[in-house]
Amino acid sequence: MSYKKKLIEVALPLEDINREAAREKSIRHGHPSTLHLWWARRPLAACRAVLFSSLVDDPSECVAELMADGAKRKAAEKAFAGLKKAWLARKAVFDKAAASGMPVSSNPAPGLEPKVEDILVETERERLFDIIRDLVKWENSNEERVLNKARAEIMRSCNGAPPPVYDPFCGVSGVESKPASKGRIRTSQSEAGLFISFRLGGAMDFDGEIERAGGAL
Predict the structure, then answer these.
(1) Which of these, 40, 89, 152, 179, is most buried using a 10 Å CB contact count?
(2) 57, 61, 64, 70: CA torsion to nearest 10
(3) Which residues lie below 8 Å from residue 137, measured CB to CB, with a gap of 6+?
(4) CA 109, 114, 117 angle in degrees (round to 5)?
(5) CA 50 → CA 12, 54, 58, 86, 120, distances in Å?
(6) Predicted confidence (pLDDT) per residue in 89-136, tens digit
(7) What gap in Å lies between CA 120 and CA 118, rounded to an integer?
(8) Burial status of residue 46 (CB atoms within 10 A of its CB: 0-12, 13-18, 19 or more)
(9) Range 106-114 contact pairs with CB under 8 angstroms and sequence separation of 24 or more
(10) Nearest one of 77, 183, 78, 57 to 124, comparing CA atoms
(11) Which residues on adjacent β-strands are paired with residue 194?
């Protein structure tokens, strides 16, 4: 089976992730990690973004599938017409200036010629970015609508069988076993610190009680 490049290897909406990660640090309710200000706690927003983008294929690996989607191809072709017209205008200016002997330093190149395939890939990548932007928000930690979108993309990229995820330094929740397990992702996590291990065990027990209570405790 050939390897497909993952989204995290190409691009991420870093500004959105960074903003939500910084905001999360100031929230003091709604999660066991807020019980104690651990000196090196990593934001769960970053954890969710990294986990999702590590499992989802980059759209550049799905060009044939995107081209076969009539609605997406039609939208891309519509955008392509405008981009191609603008590119041709820039190229004409560049060629005219080059013919007159204008130095390259004063005559910016028109850039690569736009292609329908590239527009499809960028549009699809932005759609995945929107999922990440929703996923990293603290308020959406247990929002089923948002989580289901993320799960669907993971299952699609992994052919319904995502690989197990292991977090050897999980802190209080690491790979967030509850959203992951609901998404049929096998997770394993461990922690060497005694105090954090105690909190992790309590968090897992509490999560189990919530599940047995049908989501309300």
Answers:
(1) 179
(2) 40
(3) 20, 45, 146
(4) 150
(5) 9, 6, 13, 36, 23
(6) 999 999 999 999 888 788 889 899 999 999 999 999 999 999 999 999
(7) 5
(8) middle
(9) 111/87, 113/84, 113/87, 114/80, 114/83, 114/84, 114/87
(10) 57
(11) none
- Residues counted in the chain: 217
Query: Strand (E) positions, 101-198?
Result: 165-167, 187-189
SS3 169: coil
**Amino acid at the residue 36:** H
Predicted confidence (pLDDT) per residue in 142-159, tens digit = 888 999 999 999 999 998
Both tokens of 144, joined, read 């089923």
The tokens for 73 are 């191809």
Helix axes 44-55, 144-157, angle to 10 degrees: 30
